[in-house]
Amino acid sequence: MKKRLIDWTRGRMPTREGMAGNRFLAPIAHRFLSPELWRFTRRSVPRGVALGLFAAFIVPLGQIFLAAFLALPTRANVPLAAAVTFVTNPFTVPFWVVFANRVGGALLRADYYAGAPLSDHIDNGWWSRMGQFFETAGVTAFGFVVLAVGSAIVGYFVSGWLWRWQVGRRRRHALSIRQEARILARERQAGSGD
Fold it and tell me: Residues of the chain whose pLDDT is less than 50?
């Protein structure tokens, strides 16, 4: 199952040549061919995750391009930054809009502070609905900014921790295999010496 997921992810990740051949990226396509932008290292992975999450929440369209552009100067992993932007997709957008509205409303307390004075100055009817729409849109936009910055920070630290944990796990596994091999070699030597 894990191997199938990894193979599926690799099959859908953008390639260096594909991004370099994109017409929107043509002016800076030579920069996308740099191998350091495609390596999975302890520094490039958290940067790629953070930039991908930031781009996913900060703009409604063109998130992959924004993540790729931001990855260039920060030397982040381009395919990972592009892949992480899919946290916001057409299926999850309604959830994120409601969540961003709740986050923005909780932080601004717009319904408490601005709701009563605003309704005193706006008549009922069309102006009232427009005022409510812009109030809700502003709260939601603020919520998306908070989600962009907050998820980028959390994503950076969590992916960095997961990277270190995974590398440590691999090292411990390799060390245990080496120790087993040494023990077997000693036993063979002891058995041949008898």
Answer: none
